[in-house]
Design the sequence.
């Protein structure tokens, strides 16, 4: 894939990238920066993309890494395994947007990809490089914390 | 509003994209293009910085055309284009003064070939290629070993980053300063992908090749030696041009200096001219253990032209005063004291635990090499070594502001102070002044 083709395909997926970025980061400016940086990193390492059919997965992973890099700069968060018993009440008391934003990253990203961006379980597992079963576990845990009854959606992306 | 309503509202909200997103790809592409230009000059780890006196600019070849067609060894005739940058090497190739080596090794999908060599009594030039489908900027960390695998002493390696498009060949120059070229040399070549990032680049080797290369010394032509012994004076400093030795790959001019000189000679702006008016340009200089001056100067070689006359013509000279003070740089406040008036501190940027310090050196047509010497100290006198240099011409890319600033006629030099914890650094200038002569200083060599 050359840089012109990359630019065309990046144009096609930039809205989806932005949706993921703003779900991770919350703010418009930061989300735009993350998208810009991901596409820039894509141009830079284009020659390492050996299978163009994985373009979107590859670029989305770059974006997710950028978002996580930004999140790591923020306050240290509690791993979801260590959340207190009272966490369900605490999340329930928050507006949904705020509750998702404050979820531990490992849970939050499953909600972002599965329910806000309609990725399948398989695709989410591929993007996050974790087993499908782990995605399912985290998804259940996150939905429970958010008191959100959405069921097992399987919209194909 | 219940949780489900909130969820659907949130999804709807995410459908709104800001107008700025329209230009994301354009912005990213512009940044990439700009950085690509900037990378023409990249930070070179100190371990790869081959000669002390020559500013060494790596032209990164970003062509995607990996020549799978390069399976065979290119023909000698194709070498002419590879060595077009050097008059001496062009003349050597023209005169078929080339030895075929033809060695190939592969590891981890990386193939290295040593195709040809040019060998004279002091230097060896190897034509080699390094190819992979997975990496774009393959580089070598090379050592020369004896048969018992101990590293040879006193050699200099010059690895030019340029790659000839057609043959995929690159050039490696090995200089043997004291001893003659050996008839057998073991080249240990460790390969890495040069990303231009000092932190992540160094020593992640992707392949490790060892080539036992034998040269046919019966084909090596003898040097032509000229006794000169002529005294010259420049800016009140006295020197004697003692001899000039002509080898196929260089003309070497040797000098001695007067012990009463107040400055070290750190550069000469000069050339050699033959009776036809053909000019041979300088290719570098070297020092010795006994002096801080560069007293051996190398020039493109007239070896194959059998000239009747040769004259050395000096246009200017670069000095370092023997009592020169260190340059004190306050990294935090970005100020420097005792800088020569033709050098400006542009920036001091903290990157992780490293500092990158950048100077603009107004060349004034003098072809000055890097300004900052290899060793530096902190205010307590603790010694460190510069971790890497970057050199560009005329343009400084200010990362903080995201803009390129032009400095016409200047070389822009960035040094990396690795893991440096102090706020102030004392740098050693390689030179403190220069003179340009209205009338060239001329010495007849032949």
Sequence:
């Amino acid at each position: 894939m050359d840089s012109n083709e990359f630019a065309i395909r990046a144009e096609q997926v930039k809205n989806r990238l932005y949706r993921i970025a703003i779900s991770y980061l919350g703010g418009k400016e930061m989300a735009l920066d993350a998208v810009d940086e991901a596409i820039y990193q894509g141009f830079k390492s284009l020659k390492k993309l050996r299978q163009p059919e994985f373009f979107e997965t590859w670029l989305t992973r770059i974006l997710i890494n950028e978002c996580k890099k930004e999140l790591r700069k923020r306050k240290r968060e509690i791993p979801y395994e260590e959340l207190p018993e009272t966490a369900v009440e605490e999340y329930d008391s928050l507006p949904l947007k705020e509750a998702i934003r404050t979820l531990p990253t490992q849970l939050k990203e499953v909600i972002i990809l599965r329910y806000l961006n309609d990725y399948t379980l398989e695709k989410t597992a591929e993007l996050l490089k974790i087993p499908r079963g782990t995605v399912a576990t985290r998804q259940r845990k996150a939905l429970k914390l958010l008191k959100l009854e959405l069921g097992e959606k399987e919209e194909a992306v | 509003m219940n949780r489900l309503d909130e969820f659907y509202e949130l999804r709807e909200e995410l459908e709104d994209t800001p107008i700025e997103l329209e230009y994301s790809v354009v912005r990213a592409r512009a940044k990439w293009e700009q950085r690509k230009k900037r990378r023409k000059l990249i930070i070179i780890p100190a371990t790869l910085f081959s000669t002390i006196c020559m500013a060494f600019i790596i032209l990164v070849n970003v062509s995607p055309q990996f020549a799978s067609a390069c399976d065979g060894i290119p023909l000698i005739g194709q070498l002419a284009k590879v060595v077009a940058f050097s008059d001496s090497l062009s003349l050597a190739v023209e005169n078929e003064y080339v030895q075929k080596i033809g060695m190939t090794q592969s590891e981890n999908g990386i193939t290295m070939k040593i195709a040809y060599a040019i060998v004279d009594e002091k230097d060896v030039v190897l034509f080699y290629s390094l190819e992979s489908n997975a990496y774009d900027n393959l580089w070598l960390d090379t050592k020369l070993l004896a048969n018992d695998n101990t590293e040879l002493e006193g050699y200099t390696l010059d690895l030019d980053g340029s790659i000839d498009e057609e043959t995929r060949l690159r050039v490696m120059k090995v200089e043997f300063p004291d001893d003659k070229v050996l008839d057998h040399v073991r080249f240990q070549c460790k390969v890495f992908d040069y990303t231009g990032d000092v932190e992540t680049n160094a020593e992640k080797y992707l392949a490790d090749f060892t080539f036992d290369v034998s040269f046919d010394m019966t084909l090596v032509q003898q040097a032509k030696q000229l006794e000169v012994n002529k005294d010259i004076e420049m800016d009140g400093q006295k020197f004697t041009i003692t001899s000039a030795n002509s080898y196929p790959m260089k003309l070497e001019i040797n000098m001695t200096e007067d012990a009463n000189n107040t400055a070290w000679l750190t550069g000469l702006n000069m050339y050699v001219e033959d009776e036809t008016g053909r000019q041979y340009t300088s290719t570098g200089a070297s020092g010795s253990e006994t002096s801080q001056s560069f007293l051996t100067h190398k020039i493109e070689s007239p070896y194959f032209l059998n000239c009747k006359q040769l004259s050395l013509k000096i246009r200017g000279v670069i000095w370092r005063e023997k009592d020169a003070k260190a340059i004190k740089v306050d990294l935090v406040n970005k100020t420097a004291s005792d800088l020569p008036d033709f050098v400006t501190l542009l920036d001091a940027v903290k990157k992780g635990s490293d500092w990158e310090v950048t100077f603009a050196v107004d060349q004034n047509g003098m072809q000055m090499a890097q300004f900052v010497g290899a060793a530096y100290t902190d205010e307590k006198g603790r010694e460190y070594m510069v971790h890497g240099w970057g050199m560009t011409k005329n343009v400084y890319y200010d990362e903080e502001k995201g803009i390129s600033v032009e400095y016409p006629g200047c070389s822009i030099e960035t040094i990396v102070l690795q893991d440096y914890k102090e706020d102030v650094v004392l740098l050693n200038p390689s030179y403190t002044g220069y003179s340009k002569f209205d009338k060239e200083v001329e010495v007849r060599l032949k």
Remarks:
- Confidence is low (pLDDT under 50) at residues 38-45, 47-71, 197-202 of chain B.
- The interface with chain A takes residues 3-4, 6-7, 10-11, 13-15, 17-18, 20-21, 24-25, 27-29, 31-32, 35, 64, 133-134, 136 of chain B (CB under 8 Å).
